[in-house]
Amino acid sequence: MKWKTTLQVAATYVGAVMGAGFASGQEIQQFFARFGRWGLAGIVVSAVLFSLLGWGMLDLQRRWQISSYPDFFNHLLGARWGRWADGLVSILLFLGILAMISGCGALFYEYFGFSRWLGIFLTGSVIAIALWFRGEGVLWINSVLIPLKFIFCLGIATAAVFFATSGDGEGIVILTNPIVKNWALSAILYVSFNLTLAMVVFASLGRDVQRPGARLGAVLGGVALGIFAFVIGAALLRFPDILGLEIPMVAVAGKLGDWPAFFYVVVLWLTMITAAIGNGFSLVSRVVDTGKLSYGKATFLLLLLLLPIAGVKFSHIVQFVYPLFGYLGLVFLPTILYFWHRG
User: N or C end: fewer C-beta atoms under 10 angstroms in the chain?
Assistant: First the structure.
């Protein structure tokens, strides 16, 4: 049972961080690949921080007996600032789910040639089924889908690095960003960007992630994220002609042929589903904690609000949602380390 919990927590950690931006290569491109080989060093730094902070988060949750992310915020920031963080994160969670469902619709339309709304409703149905089984449903769907997409994406990136022949790494295009000009700072910001969502997912799962072996799962999850990000970064640096594209990893898969590109798009869809499920469970759990709605009614209301507006453009949502997560995460990163060290 200990190893079962370890693997479930590791998969859930990877699922919380490895959203569409990660698997598409866009996040790795913006935060690491644009710094060239120093970006690969930044990935190693981020993997260490993910493992360390993941262990710290779960250790604090076990110590404080956390069952919801507002409770975690109150312990970290106090009641006043905890309520502020709670409200902002609830909004960001809703927008994050909206971004994932909207992105699924875009994938169905742009790559499969199907109706955008077919992708939206099919994705919504999978999310509804996973949420129906509550915390165990979130852990189990991550346990099944995360290893599948991790192995496939890692395999495609590794194959491209070693077997694709074009773009041998010369003339690498370094993308500019006036906000972050240092690879080490970029690595820290990347961790803070993703840590908030992982923290919210873990806190919402409560006792499901307070079992023996859970903290080791967080460490393994951080290592897995580092390995995957490193391979994607190496693949992006090997093919400078794809740097700057909206979904660079599909282009990397295309270097191996049409079928690898097609299956990579399928994996991207699974990635968006797992990210939406993690966000959805956290948000529904928060609504239930207020005592105003039951779990079933809160889930139904969430999907009822999301689906009609899910046709909004994916890139427009991501443009605003992701930076907000990053700024919020900068508050939690040192606070978690402080309380963990003090304990």
Answer: N
